[in-house]
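Q: Give me the 3D complex with magnesium ion.
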Amino acid sequence: MSGIPVACHGLVHIYRVEGNDVVALSGVDLDVAPGEVVGLLGPSGAGKSTLLNLFAGLLRPSAGRLTVGDHDIARMDERGLARMRAVDVGVVLQGAMRNLLPYATPIDNVRFAQRGAQRVGGQDLPRAEEVLGLIGLDEEATTSLSALSPGQRQRLAVGVGLAAQPGLLLLDEPTSQLDHEGRDEVIDSVLAANRDLGTTVVAVTHDPDVADRLPRTVTIRDGRVGSEGRRGEDFAVVARDGSLTLPPDILENVPPGSLLRVTVDDDGAVRLRRTGAAGEIHLEEGR
Ligand code: ADP
Ligand code: MG
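A: Here is the predicted complex, encoded as structure tokens.
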């Protein structure tokens, strides 16, 4: 299967715990095109894992719209969500072993992961050997997991996520606790899957070296999209409701409540001018 798109509009997620509401996402607008690779960055507690779990159909939105491929997540029942997870979406949770059967060999781990998809209506799945080849573990097909390196185990977790050839692969911190070599190999495997299968990839990471290898990054801050990066350059994003999240370094100069006069020059430069203050911010419209 080739890549599927993800689209969210004003996405809100609230956890209800003992009479307390925790607003984890407070209006996320994000479109991911089929076959795109996107990194989700941002400080701890920003809402990255929540967003990933919503994309996976493991959580339901509290408000807003979310579609994954043709699926309108808010309207689906549990059966539909389970089917979507089995066929369309591969999820790799944080911590390799959370995704693996510890006493099964690598090839049996891949085969087990394929069963769910076969049960709900068998598309043609690749042979388990091919999946291992894609992640560079063909030689380790029957090696015990305890004899694999941490990087190899993480790559196997990626292989398990890819086993049913999903259109969307979701990864939560896939390189945490790996050395440089292990980390690079994991990212190589993910990018190879994207290139060879067209799989759409959304990966949470807080490793700047990983982010550097991804063509597009989205920074989540306080439950919203804070900024976007394209090939190392950072951009502020205008949300669908017209709001703009300013980068933290600019916010130091314009505290909340500041009045800004917004003008667009003939050459397309957008100016934010603080009233009654010397400070002036210049924004060139992104191209
Ligand atoms: P991140 O992955 O960016 O660190 P999370 O999505 O895990 O952020 O969390 C976002 C917010 O939601 C945090 O304030 C966190 O404490 C809260 N949160 C996450 N999971 C739960 C949960 N199961 N129940 C209650 N609150 C949660
Ligand atoms: Mg997280």
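A quick observation: The radius of gyration is 21 Å.
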